[in-house]
Specification:
This protein has 365 residues and is α+β, with helices and mostly antiparallel strands. It folds into two domains: 137 residues, Beta Polymerase, domain 2, CATH 3.30.460.10; 214 residues, no CATH class. The protein has 15 helices and six strands.
Length: 365
């Protein structure tokens, strides 16, 4: 298995200099807040792991591609001075770097409640600390075990990337946002293999490590390994948007494989056998059995009163309805009748479905 050091991808000199200058500005900015200064600042995501995307600008020069995702640790996450400072810093640095710079304020104790999450595992095992005491997250390393990542994390990953595939389907139908379609497809290519590694207890924070492990795994569709390799290449060095017919062909293959992968993960998580989409969408049990039916009914009542509608079935956590709807919408052709039943709306076409799905996805993603 490759080492973490070998998994990092060096930035071109120009981007390395720009990133180091950004780090210096960030340290100076937050250190100057006095009593509102955070305890530590940690960069997660691709650039924090040393494998952020390297794109090309209009002149062919290297350019940043991914967002910069920061975790800003403080005992006072609601501190007004700090939060206002974070918002100003986000605006200024986003404008300077040409990518989104985002910071989330939280106490370090929040990490104690999330050892089974993929976010926790990625952050603790692979990050860049910008400010604060040395090895600030080291105490959490013993908890960051790949075999401890919950299966629901694989479900969440596939649901999010499957939602991206549905948005791509709607955009392809309208012939718009093709670069976004290309990016959503690339993310889905990665998610398939990553989800299967997760449920096997073999997920790793570095994408090239995961690719190497997939090639050694047995019982995985070879197409998933190949797609993961394509997704890895795109993540590290994004490519130009293909022609429309290529995007359509990719969408067809990806959706078919995504569906099989999602049903495999959900079959393992719920101890059921979902062989086809209808087995899942018509499942009479709760997709989130650990949640309280009463609380879910109250969420539906709140949504009806405040948002003018609710998702069904009401006894399940609302994300369950969205997952059922997604399987219906990614059918070919889309089953708008079933999706509408889960979304609580009559859906005239895929564009209408995209509007309603996006709205609820924003609430419960």
């Amino acid at each position: 298995m490759p080492s973490a050091q070998l998994s990092a991808v060096p930035l071109p000199d120009s981007l390395h200099v720009a990133l180091e200058a950004h780090f210096e500005r960030t340290r100076a900015y937050f250190s100057g807040l006095g009593a509102a200064s955070p305890e530590a600042i940690v960069l997660g995501g691709g650039y924090g792991r040393g494998e952020g995307g390297i794109a090309s600008d209009a002149k062919g020069a290297p350019a940043f591609f991914n967002d910069l995702d920061y975790f800003i640790f403080t005992n006072e996450p609601g501190n007004v001075v700090l939060n206002d400072a974070v918002q100003q810093w986000e605006r200024e640095e986003s404008e300077r770097l040409g990518i989104d710079v985002e910071g989330k304020c939280l106490p370090r104790t929040d990490l104690e409640a999330t050892p089974g999450s993929m976010m926790f595992f990625d952050l603790v095992t692979a990050h860049t600390q910008i400010m604060g005491p040395k090895d600030y997250l080291a105490p959490f390393l013993p908890l960051a075990q790949a075999e401890s990542i919950a299966v629901i994390e694989a479900t969440r990953l596939l649901w999010n990337r499957g939602s991206g595939l549905f948005f791509a389907k709607a955009d392809l139908a309208a012939g718009q946002n093709l670069s976004v379609v290309h990016r959503n497809q690339a993310k889905a290519k990665l998610a398939l293999g990553d989800a299967l590694l997760t449920i096997r207890g073999k997920y790793r924070p570095y994408v090239r490590e995961r690719q190497a492990l997939l090639q050694l795994e047995t019982g995985i569709d070879p197409r998933i390994v190949e797609l993961h390799q394509e997704g890895t290449a795109f993540k590290l060095q994004p490519t130009q948007t293909p022609e429309l017919d290529v995007l359509h062909a990719t969408q067809t293959v990806l959706t078919e494989i995504w569906r099989a992968c999602f049903l495999e993960v959900e079959s393992q998580r719920l101890g059921q056998s979902f062989r086809k989409s209808s087995d899942y969408t018509r499942y009479s049990g709760k997709l989130f059995p650990e949640t309280s039916s009463l609380r879910n009914y109250l969420l539906a009542l709140r949504d009806q009163m405040k948002r003018g509608g609710h998702l069904s079935p009401r006894k399940d956590y609302p994300r369950g309805a969205l997952q059922r709807a997604l399987l219906s919408l990614l059918s070919e052709p889309s089953d708008l009748t079933s999706a509408g039943r889960f979304l609580g709306r009559s859906l005239a076409n895929i564009q209408t479905a995209a509007q309603h799905y996006t709205r609820w996805w924003g609430y419960y993603s």
